[in-house]
Design brief:
By secondary structure, this protein is an alpha/beta fold. It has a domain at 3-142 and 174-198 and 263-274: Rossmann fold, CATH 3.40.50. It is built from twelve helices and nine strands. The structure holds NADP nicotinamide-adenine-dinucleotide phosphate.
């Protein structure tokens, strides 16, 4: 069995490779990266993990890299919609040309039906994979706890936890759990044509801050504001306008339930209880 992980230089991909290496021989694993001369690539090679170039903007690298591969993890890329669809098409066409048996793709919560602003592009990319006829598994990852590290740092420096997400809940997940669950899918059986929802316990912003306060022993206050005020505060702090727009849309989407998930397959895929937000914060802040 040969498993190739694209985006192996990234935070999720590298953890998937790490998790695979704990479960199967290094000869089963291939790390797909854009820069094969990087330090990260050298580390993989040193572990006996073959490194291949996988650039979604260069289809020939993908066709070459996917030769002899049984299962490929395609990482979602972030950026402009047209480019991202072209990249996904390149990856899927290359998988077909190379005869890859299964694609595992990192998607978004309820990507097939969700109105959350980031879900639409995942829906299109899932459809591209489905249309190929290749066996697929979608791991629909919820919001990383790690996404909050910047805000956590500001709060630890004295700022309140500013939010316009109201009572909206988020099924925050710890990225190493997602990597482990994905590794289990990549080496597992019986996952064909399945979309797994990988979410944690649904928490409000206040419940997240409560967990943070418990872990740090601080008393960080929550400051609820409306979207306009939230955006003004971010702009006032010097954030670029496109980032401000995205962060306001995130708060709005959370308020409207876009990251709440009534169902999760994370425990099933891990074979254990997922790491709670509190445990994740303990590990991240230790
Ligand atoms: N669920 C969430 O909360 C959440 C949060 C952030 C992002 N995401 C999504 O989940 C993905 C994985 O998360 P992450 O934390 O691992 O992000 P990350 O650390 O930014 O890693 C992204 C990976 O994608 C690779 N990549 C980007 N563009 C590429 C291209 N054109 N061709 C080939 N590889 C390319 C990067 O390679 P290089 O090292 O060469 O740049 C990197 O390895 C992200 O890309 C994003 O779509 C999800």
């Amino acid at each position: 069995m040969k498993i190739l992980v694209t985006g192996a230089s990234g935070k999720l991909g590298s953890k998937i490779v790490e998790s695979l290496a704990e479960k199967v021989p290094a000869s089963y694993i291939l790390a797909g990266v854009r820069d094969t001369q990087s330090e990260r690539a050298a580390v993989f090679a040193g572990q006996g993990i073959e490194v291949r170039e996988t650039d979604f903007d260069k289809k020939d690298t993908l066709v070459q890299a996917f030769q002899g591969i049984d299962r490929v993890f395609i990482v979602s890329t972030f950026g402009e919609a047209e480019a991202s669809i072209r990249q996904q098409t390149n990856a899927v066409e290359a998988a077909l040309e190379a005869g890859v048996a299964q694609i595992v793709y990192s998607s978004a919560p309820r990507a097939d039906v969700s109105e959350f602003f980031l879900a639409g592009i995942h829906r299109v990319r899932e459809e591209i994979i489905k249309a190929s006829g290749i066996s697929y598994v979608f791991v629909r990852n919820n919001w990383y706890v790690e996404n909050e590290l910047g805000t956590i740092q500001q709060s630890l420096n004295g700022a309140p936890w500013v939010t316009s997400a109201g009572m909206g809940q988020v099924g925050w997940v710890y990225r190493p759990d997602l990597a482990e669950a994905t590794a289990n899918v990549l080496i597992g059986k019986g996952h064909e044509h399945t979309a797994y929802e990988l979410s944690g316990q649904n928490l409000t912003q206040q419940q997240f801050v409560d967990a943070l306060n418990e872990v740090t022993g601080k008393d960080i206050p929550l400051l609820p504001v409306d979207d306009a005020t939230y955006g003004e505060m971010l702009s006032g702090a010097g954030l670029p306008e496109d980032l401000v727009t995205m962060l306001v849309m995130t708060q709005q989407g959370i308020r409207e339930g876009g990251l709440e998930n009534a169902h999760s397959d994370l425990e099933l895929l891990l074979g254990r209880k997922p790491t709670s937000v509190k445990e994740a914060l303990q590990q991240l802040l230790s």
